[in-house]
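Structure in, sequence out. Go:
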């Protein structure tokens, strides 16, 4: 295989179609590795997470020009203040990352990738600092094997949990799978909302509706949460807005809203991708906390996912208690660091 390097945004954009086709056959097919998601991420450098960043996307092709593998990297100073290469999407707003390659070419691709990267002078990068790779990804073992073969050093640590609920065939089976107290609480909260005289309803923003207005309303209410205000800088709001609109355009956004008396009471911005629902961002209007709008809406979203034959509900990174109360079981993402000698 032949590996070339993409360093400019136009060349990055030109990869869109074949990038996503390759992703659909790759060892890790997640929304955070979609070309349109990472292109949006790059436009704001992760909502302002990285000020210093240069594209370093390694592109592997066969002799006929067919795309074999992608290492979507960028050069920056790492959190340890070292010149390094990191995965596009790192770190905070892309819950799962990886190389993009099918299983049958992953090993040779990784070997050739490291050989190619080793041609860069030491001042260009000292460390490959790779966050948010699933603990079960074969990429980790492929990298470890190739690194040790070259005599470099490698370390791997668990980074964060990602609770996931496996969804059964029907809603009642799901409820039965919860602990008795949580099952009772979820039923009670949803029933109380249904019988509220204030009028409670929920909906998913669909084609033909004003998605831009809906996303702006979502962000406005999300910013009412004091815990999220520091996170929601102007550039981060731009990032979330663009990501949501891009996902909607490509057919994998689910924006669910709960309204009480015609007012927004809760919202979930999810990714509906690859037969899974990925719970990405949310808000709950403090005005309606007595009716537990966040729980009520999430209950409806889970029921929708089951009825529409989604296999999993991925709560993404973080160990918040509600994720486990609603059936989440831990999976983990890792950080792998590679240093050359």
């Amino acid at each position: 295989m032949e590996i070339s390097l993409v360093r400019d945004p136009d060349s990055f954009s030109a990869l869109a179609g074949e990038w996503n086709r390759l992703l659909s056959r790759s060892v890790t097919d997640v929304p955070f590795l979609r070309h349109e998601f990472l292109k949006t991420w790059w436009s704001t450098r992760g909502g302002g997470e990285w000020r210093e960043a240069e594209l370093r996307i390694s592109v592997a092709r066969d002799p006929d020009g067919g795309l074999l593998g992608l290492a979507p990297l960028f050069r920056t100073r790492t959190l340890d203040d070292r010149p390094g290469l990191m995965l596009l999407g790192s770190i905070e707003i892309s819950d799962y990352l990886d190389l993009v390659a099918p299983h049958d070419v992953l090993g040779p691709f990784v070997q050739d990738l490291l050989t190619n990267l080793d041609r860069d002078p030491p001042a260009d990068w000292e460390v490959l600092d790779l966050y948010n790779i699933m603990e079960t990804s074969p990429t980790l073992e492929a990298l470890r094997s190739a690194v040790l073969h070259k005599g470099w050093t490698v370390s791997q640590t668990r980074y964060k949990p990602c609770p996931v609920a496996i969804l059964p065939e029907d809603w009642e089976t799901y409820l039965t799978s919860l602990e008795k107290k949580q099952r009772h609480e979820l039923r009670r909260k949803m029933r109380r909302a249904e019988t509220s005289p204030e009028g409670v309803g929920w909906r998913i923003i669909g084609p033909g509706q004003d998605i831009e207005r809906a996303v702006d309303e979502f962000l406005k209410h999300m910013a009412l949460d004091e815990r999220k205000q520091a996170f929601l800088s102007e550039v981060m709001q731009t990032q979330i807005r663009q990501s949501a609109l891009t996902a909607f355009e490509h057919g994998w956004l689910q924006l669910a809203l709960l309204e009480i008396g015609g007012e927004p009471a809760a919202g979930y911005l999810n990714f509906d991708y690859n037969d899974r629902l990925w719970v990405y961002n949310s808000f709950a209007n403090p005005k309606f906390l007595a009716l537990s709008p966040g729980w009520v809406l999430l209950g409806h979203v889970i029921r929708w996912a089951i009825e529409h034959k989604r296999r999993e509900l991925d709560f993404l990174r973080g160990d918040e208690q509600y994720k486990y109360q609603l059936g989440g079981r831990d999976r983990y993402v890792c950080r792998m660091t590679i240093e050359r000698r």
